[in-house]
Design a protein that fits this description.
Helix content is 30%, strand content 24%. It is of the alpha+beta class. It is globular and about 40 Å long.
Length: 87
Amino acid sequence: MTFTRENLEALIAECGSFLPADAGYRECADLDGQAAHLFLQALGYSVLGHQDRHTHGCAYTACGVILSTNGFVHRDINLAWKLHRKA
């Protein structure tokens, strides 16, 4: 199975979910979210960055998608606002 952006959006629509094993994402590949960053970028997302959150890492996109290093993906609709407030 080729995992696509549409597949990811379907998981997010379910209020977040873990990526399936055949998605091509290697869980816990790192702790700072760089692998998640590259995975989202490969699917065509505009990735704003990634970070180490001490117990796990995550990558986040301009449209609010967040992928954790453990493979959990969801959307935070307020993410852009939160990031803007920190700047």
